[in-house]
Write a structure and sequence with these properties.
Blueprint: E1 2-10, H1 13-19, H2 22-47, H3 55-64, E2 66-70, E3 73-79, H4 86-109, E4 114-122, E5 124-125, E6 130-131, H5 133-143, E7 150-152, H6 154-163, H7 171-177, E8 178-184, E9 187-190, E10 193-196, E11 199-205, E12 210-211, H8 224-232, H9 242-260, E13 266-267
Helix pairs in contact: 2-4, 8-9
């Protein structure tokens, strides 16, 4: 079926497994286990600003999500139908984008930065498995970057911006949340240390400036390097090589690029009750 989906890998998960104490591991894994239920509900509550959407409509949307967490990989997909009413397609894209924003932000905040991609395509889905060429394409896209970043594929970007007209207020949500940056890719040994020697421009999922309803805005720290290093080394993780330290430096650069885009925090409002559901 045709889906918009995200596939994300946790950076430093091997170090987390090797060094995290049992109590902290239980706490972190509990948070990840609850993502499948907690985050979609939180997003829907934020969208339902008037608190007047029937619970059965919310349940229909949540039940359409396909979610799988396995080891250091998080996969989430939402089927969509281009023959459906325009309002339904629009809401599916809004809901999924906000979901992806909050997953990436929350994982970073708990000290498990992720790297991945958002893509569209024909995906085979079962209760606990997924397959399809599009998944390979998404994984290849995300895995090339040497930073904690989620890339938006050209196909996903085109679907989103072709669906919403220029004058639609909600289009601001996407322009704020999908920021083009120059992201380091290749790694090369240079005089006994490692450096990135190639990069590509890509649309990245920016979660700095999002706030809606009960989802409070992210408090951007003044010392980005210390904050990001702390997230990469939280939960007992270490930076065992220069390659891992390089990902920290590249993530600092990414965050600074987001800030340099002259974005402002903005209260997004999408009225859930106005959207069409199956």
């Amino acid at each position: 079926m045709q889906c918009i989906f995200g596939i994300f890998d946790v950076l430093g998960f091997t170090s987390f497994c090797e060094n995290c104490d049992s109590e902290t591991a239980d706490k972190v894994l509990k948070i990840m286990d609850d993502f499948e239920t907690d985050i979609p509900k939180m997003v829907l509550e934020a969208l339902d600003t008037q608190n007047n959407t029937p619970s059965e409509k919310k349940k229909i949307l949540i039940d359409r999500l396909h979610w799988l967490t396995f080891s250091d990989t998080v996969f989430v997909a939402l089927p969509y139908d281009l023959s459906a009413k325009p309002q339904k397609i629009k809401f599916d894209l809004i809901f999924f984008t906000i979901l992806a924003i909050y997953i990436n932000r929350r994982m970073f905040e708990i000290g498990l930065p992720m790297r991945g991609a958002i893509h569209i395509g024909d995906v085979k889905l079962s209760r606990r498995c997924f397959a399809g060429k599009a998944i390979v394409e998404a994984h290849t896209l995300g895995a090339q970057f040497q930073a904690a970043v989620t890339a938006i594929s050209e196909q996903a970007n085109a679907l989103i911006f072709n669906t919403f007209m220029e004058r639609e207020p909600v289009r601001f949500l996407f322009s704020q949340s999908m920021v083009e940056c120059d992201i380091p890719t290749g790694i090369k040994d240079v005089s006994q240390f490692i450096a990135c020697n190639t990069s590509v421009k890509a649309k990245t999922l920016c979660w700095f400036y999002f706030k809606m309803g009960s989802i409070a805005p992210f408090n951007i720290p003044s010392d980005l390097h210390s904050y990001i290093t702390g997230r990469f080394t939280a939960n007992g993780k270490t930076l065992p090589s220069y390659k891992e330290k390089l990902k920290v430096a590249n993530t600092v650069k990414l965050f600074k690029d987001w800030m340099a885009a002259n974005h402002t925090q903005y209260e997004h409002e999408v009225r859930l009750k106005d959207q069409t559901h199956p």
